[in-house]
Structures are given as structure tokens and as C-alpha cells.
Amino acid sequence: MPTNAALDRQSLPFLTGDPKRLLIGGEWVESASGRTFPSIDPSTGATIAEIAQADPDDVNRAVAAARAAFEGPWRSLTPAARQSIIWQVADVIEANAAELRRLEAVDMGMPIGRDPGAGADKLVEVLRYFAGFATKIHGRTLPNSMPWQILTYTSHEPVGVVASIIPWNSPINNVLWKLAPVLASGCTMVLKPAEEASLVALRIGELLSGTDLPDGVVNIVTGFGEAGAALVEHPGVDKVAFTGSTATGQAIVRASAGNLKRLTLELGGKSPDVVFADADFRRAVPGVAMGVFGNSGQACCAGTRIFVERPIFEEFAAALTAYTAKLKVGPSLDPQTRIGPLVSQAQLSRVTGYLDIGREAGARVLAGGARLTDGDLANGYFVPPTLLADVTDDMAVVREEIFGPVGCLLPFDTVEEVAARSNDTEFGLAGGIWTTNLGNAHRLAALMRTGTVWVNTYNLFDPAVPFGGYKMSGWGHENGPDALGQYLTTKAVWVRTD
Length: 498
Fold this sequence. Notes:
Radius of gyration: 23 Å
Number of strands: 22
CATH architecture of the largest domain: 3-Layer(aba) Sandwich
Low-confidence stretches: none
Helix content: 25-40%
Number of domains: 2
Oligomer: single chain
Structural class: alpha/beta
Distance between the termini: 78 Å
CATH topology of the largest domain: Aldehyde Dehydrogenase, Chain A, domain 1
Shape: globular
Largest sheet: 7 strands, mixed
Mean pLDDT: 95
Strand content: 15-25%
């Protein structure tokens, strides 16, 4: 059985050789400073690669390359040619899906044995979905009330150079969700992956070289906040598409004001997952558990506030605790692992800090509750799936986004009550409902102030279905026609014909 500690480097040749470089204008180049930083396997704490650390000079070069491609070869392609290239990109990523999934596992700790439906070979469908739009971007002919013969029509044009800044929690997904609408719209991009998990983005950059994608359409700069800030502030960037924390999103809003950049922000969450007394336990127990603990809770839409109708509260809490105890925690390359490590030492400290805060506030630990330090897990960043009871809505563990495998159980009595409590948060990204009464499902779904509501399921995504948030969970959407529109700008044309 493979483990991260015995990683076969021949199965991931991308991890061998010299430090990973920046992709700028179709060339792999060192950073201007020559500095690098380590990439850490969170299952072992071991360094698996060195990565170039970009600075503002590198960002300047990348933005210039993206601008040259936008004004040059990329813009001159027909929609059908652009569509064909996106299909090529999808095919080459799909052909290398197994490698990308293994790389993702050691890059940030996502278990290799998770649901196969979440793999890179399925995620490429977002590319094929958006490829179809490349030939369907069109304006309208509009009536007008002028006293002369005037033809008025609109066209939709690509915004321009996009800074795509992504987090570490789902590397393949994060790259492809940003890449697909950029290519379909005719924009170009400078991609800045999170420093905790940059390897997948760089490998995808290598795979792009095997397609007909013109040089400079996709550029990749790796590094820390300095590079991200330089991108957001850069006058040559027309749009920022960011996924990450709400605090960073707020900073991006302020920094983008210089040239009034377009913004798409997919930010934090503290999602409610509501279980009614008539819920089907066979679905609700595993669904609620993995809604919290999937990817070790490192998901912006994790259903961490678990509201359970009072008549079944104790029974459901016991069933959920028993299910949680059976989830195998282990190295990300072990196919039996269901709960992998947290991404970094910093994230480990954050999560265990919240566990201390919860206990000090009076929370009762039903499962988990402390870092795992035994045997093969001692050097990794492992926290078992944790359930907290005896919590109240005003506790920090209930109100603040922990971004770890921690769920809080809270009883409720009425639909109106749970709706109000679900909405009593600064976030509004997602929510879940478990019931066999579709009247209650529709009623509560209408009352929830969230961008997505799942009923009798959780964490389902599709390229055709928009994903975005209310309130402090962000602006705009990923996926669906709504997402494409955020990469386009509308032009009105007036033609006097008399």
C-alpha cells in the first residue's frame, strides 16, 4: 500500500530535477531575484520540491506577456479556433488525470481515494462546457427612438488581462474553474496559485505547452503575498478573479481601485446544514459528515453549523459521532484514507487553536478534538474529524470560519427559528437541508440567504450551475453562463444609415 513517506518519485517525475520555474510568455524562467521556497508534503512535513519565488518584477513581465498575447495572436483567432484549443486543453488534462490527482495528494493533502467523481478526469468537463460558449458570444440588435435611420447593436468583447489568484484547498478544481472562462471569453491570464500548493498549477502549465494555445495566453507566477499584491495593483490588469478568504478579498477590493478593475470574489463561508426530524438517516448521516469533513474541512462551503431538530437531536448526534469515528485518517496517498492532513503547519495551528477556544468556552467534544501524533502521522499535519456539542450561536467556533474538520451541533425547534439562525452570520455561501418533507425544503431554501442550497445532498457541483455567495461570501459566480459574462464587456454601436 503506497504511503507518502515511501513516495515513488518515478511515479511523479515532475517532482524530480531543478527548482520549478515561472511560466512567462511561453518560457519557463527563473524569478528575477533567483529566490525559491519549499513545497511541503503535509502528510509527512517533508520538502518535495523547490519553487521559484516571484516578485513585482516578475509580475511586470507576466502581465506584459499576457497583454501582448491578448492584443496579438489570441485575439486574432476565430471563435471556432479558440474552441478547438480549449478542447485540446481538456483532452491533455484528462489524459494526465491520474498524475494530477497524485500530485494534488502530495501537494496539499487531498486523499487520493476520495470519490472518483471529483477527479481531474471529471473536472475537465468545465473546460468542455465553456468551450461551447466560445462560438456563442454575441450581441443584440436593438430598437431605438431616434428620428433618423439609426442601426443600434451591441457586441460582447473580452475584458482583457485577468489576474487569477487561487487558494490551496483544491488545486485542480481551482485552476480549471478560473482557466475555462478566461479561454472561452478570449481573455488572457496571469495565474497566481497559493504558495502552499503550487505544483498542480505548474504541471498544468507544462501540459498546456502540448496544445496550440499561443504563448502568453496563460502565465504562472508563484510566490507569496508580495506577488499577489503586485498583480492586484498592476495597471495592466483589467480584472481580478480571486478565491480565498474574506479578509484578503476585502484587501483586493481596496487595492484594485487604482484602475477600477473588474472583480470576481469567491470568499469564505460558515454554512448551515439543517437536519429535520423526518430526515432519512441513511443519507443524512454520511452526507452531513462529509459536508463537514470532506477535504479535512478545508472547503469554503463546508457545512460546519449542523442544526438538528430537537426531537432527534441526541439520536442524530450519536449516529453522526459513530460514523465520524469510522472515517480513516491517514496519508493522502493511502487509498483507504478518507481524511487527509491539513495543508500546512500554520493551518494546523489555526485549527487546534480553535479547538482550544471551543473547549475553554464550554464546548463538549463528541469526536476527535486534538492533533494526531502517533506512528506514521507524527510528522504530518493531522487533526481527526471533530464534533462539538453544547455550543451556542455566539461562540467563536460557531461564528468564525475555522477551515478544518470541525463541526458544531446545535438543536432547533421551528423552520422560522432555524432560518433566522442560519442567516445570523456575515457569510452566505451555501447551506444544506435534510428532510423528506419537500414543503419544508422549499420553504427553508427560500429563506436561506445563501448562494447555493443543497437538499438531501451536499457539495455537488456542475459546470452549468452557478456557484457564488451572498453578503461577505463574495461577488459574482463561478460556472454557468453567469460566470462567462464576468469576463466580457458590452459595447454599443450606433450607425446612421440614411
